[in-house]
Amino acid sequence: MKRFFKMYRLVLLSLAAVIAVLAVTAGYTVGVVSQNDVIAQIDTNIGSVETYLEKNKNTTTTLIEEFKEEYAAKTRTIAMLLAQDSSFISDDRTLEELRVTVDADMISIADVDGNVVASTDPSGEGVSIREEFRSHLEDTVYTEVLFLLESDTPTIVAASSLDGGNGLVQITFSADSMVSILQDADLANVASDIPLYSSGTTAILETDTLKYISCTDASQIGKKMEYNSEKLQKKKGKFDVKNTEGKTEMVHYQTSGDYIILATVPYSDIYHMRNVVMGWIICGGVLMLIVTALALRMVFLRQEKAKKSS
Q1: Strand ranges, E, within the chain
Q2: d(CA 242, CA 257)
Q3: 253: closest CA among 226, 223, 233, 224?
Q4: Cβ contacts of residue 290 below 8 Å, gap of 6+?
Q5: What local confidence, expressed as pLDDT, does residue 284 receive?
Q6: Cβ atoms 113, 100 nearer than 8 A
Q7: Is the four-CA dihedral 256, 261, 262, 263 of positive or negative sign?
Q8: Along the chain (310 residues), what's the average pLDDT of each consecutive run of 10 residues?
Q9: Whole-angstrom Cα distance, residue 110 to residue 128?
Q10: Cβ distance 211 to 223 under 8 Å?
């Protein structure tokens, strides 16, 4: 056996070296390609999210402007009707009919001092109109709409000049329909539609608070990012972190207006194909090495038998 290895050692070592070089080369090549593919996919996802954010911003702005015009028009119409016939102000029934016509919750009439002198809600009489409108009580032409959407009962409050600067008409509308429409453009579910490999995540964070407002992992929404904020100082970049399982992840991010679009992928996902390819090459190479060694051994044994018989 020693003689066999002495004779064919160079062949076996050369074959082993070739297998090792082939495995390393293939692993490096597939690894680079896999990483580039992941980066390309991340860039595509980030681009999709950025496009959505821009579209969402424009859509929300457009919706708000449309709602503002609609409620401003309703309020101006009521103000014009009241200006044409001042008796409507003291007629509770007429005021109620006007309220129903514009689908409002309440109509209030304020004098030049801002005091409510008539209202479809009896509890509203004798109080003052909203502070935001008080400085415009004597304006000849004035119409403004306020969106109070953050309260427990979201409302829209509009005001318009009454009879050429002799007070204001203030109308309160329910904002339920507006809130419902705006929620359709909500960002919370954006990332869930853009998954990234088996364990990767795509997320949207607020730039100032670094809180997740959308993520493929819904449990993260509302939480603050755990990474060091100093890593997100640039407009665009990448860094590596360890997740809760101790696995190293690649993190790519890009700032877009008030948001940070962030994607993470564990390197175990990135290099999965590389590891599979290297595994097959090494296993195939070892098998080839064994078969070659057995074939050479057979040749060696025949040669030894021929020498003995001669």
Answers
A1: 106-110, 116-119, 143-148, 155-161, 168-174, 201-206, 212-215, 236-242, 248-256, 259-266
A2: 28
A3: 233
A4: none
A5: 86
A6: no
A7: negative
A8: 64 82 86 82 78 71 85 93 83 89 92 89 78 90 89 88 85 83 61 64 83 79 79 82 79 83 83 85 86 77 70
A9: 7
A10: yes
243 in Cβ contact with 294 (< 8 Å): no
* Neighbouring residues of 272: CB distance < 8 A, sequence distance ≥ 6: 34
Query: What pLDDT is recorded for position 146?
Result: 93
Total length of the chain = 310
Helix (H) or strand (E) run with residue 6 in it: helix 2-84
Tokens of 275: 């590891």
Q: Can you give the pLDDT at residue 172?
A: 93
Structure tokens at 85: 């016939």
Contact 222, 214 (CB under 8 A): no
